[in-house]
Amino acid sequence: MKENIMGVDVTTLNEQQLMSRIEDDIKRFQKVRIVAINPEKIMMAEQDLNLRHLLNESTYQIPDGIGVSIASKLSGGIVKGRVTGIGMMGNLLALANKNEWKIFMYGAKPEIVNQAARNIQKKYPKLIISGTLDGYINDTQQIMKTINEVQPHILFVALGSPKQELFIKNNMEQLHVNVFQGVGGSFDVFSGHVKRAPELFLKTGTEWLYRLIKQPSRIKRQWALPLFLAKVVTSRRRTRKQHS
């Protein structure tokens, strides 16, 4: 069910299979954590063993980023396309809306998380937003107490990576939550503060290019993609030589 790309696990489930599995997890009161895997994280995990363990210990590692799908194809793998982090959040919101489940949102600036919550409630009127906390609240005991008082089915954490993944790992056993997802800057998008790329970029997997056009300062981060693919190709050739 998972494929290993340069030491990091990635789920081979497609989006529909993944959502069906997560819905079953919630109904069976299982605890699961979802992490988005992109080339930048894989490159960082190659150098940082602790980060690699943090990613691989998650329940579902979703292929967020066209580079992960390309790397799978280059290696003869079977990763079924992209499942972006914000796309997964949208899918979980739709799932919560269908089942009238509770969600909790933690992270980002106060005005961002609150506006995102208002917009989400309008779009998904049947789900229950059981609470929000901004990312400037650092008292872990207060955060856990607030979340546990309402016992949400799904917790979205927007603290940036790997801070959000560390928060989830360190506290999930004490939190009365079923599904944990680190969502990075997704609250900014749901609040309307940041716009997603046009549909053409989303469909072709070139959202990274749109972001680069809008924010040229991201060029250093985007260099991770060609470097990552070059490493995948080199590793593939080395493996072929060893088996020839």
Main features:
2 domains, alpha/beta, 6-stranded parallel beta sheet, Rossmann fold, two-stranded antiparallel ribbon, 244 residues, 13 helices
Describe the structure.
This protein has 244 residues and is of the alpha/beta class. The protein folds into two domains: 1-83 and 219-239, no CATH class; 85-194, Response regulator (Rossmann fold, 3-Layer(aba) Sandwich). Helices cover 54% and strands 16% of the residues. It is built from 13 helices and eight strands. The chain has helices spanning 15-27, 39-47, 49-56, 66-74, 85-99, 110-123, 140-150, 163-171, 186-191, 199-203, 207-214, 219-222, 224-243, and strands spanning 2-5, 8-11, 32-37, 60-63, 102-107, 128-133, 154-158, 179-182. The strands form two sheets. The chain has a six-stranded parallel β-sheet, sandwiched between helices. α2 (39-47) crosses α3 (49-56), α2 crosses α13 (224-243) and α4 (66-74) packs parallel to α13. The longest helix has 20 residues, at 224-243. The chain is globular, with a radius of gyration of 18 Å. The model has no long low-confidence stretch (mean pLDDT 89).
